Amino acid sequence: MIQTDLNDLEFVYIYHGQVINRAELLNWYGDKTAPYGVRLNANTFVDSASLRGVGSLANHSKDVRDVNADLSVYYGERNIGERARILAIEPIRNGDEIFIDYGDEYTIDEEGISYSTLPR
Question: How many beta carbons lie within 10 A of that of residue 28, not counting itself?
Answer without folding.
Answer: 19
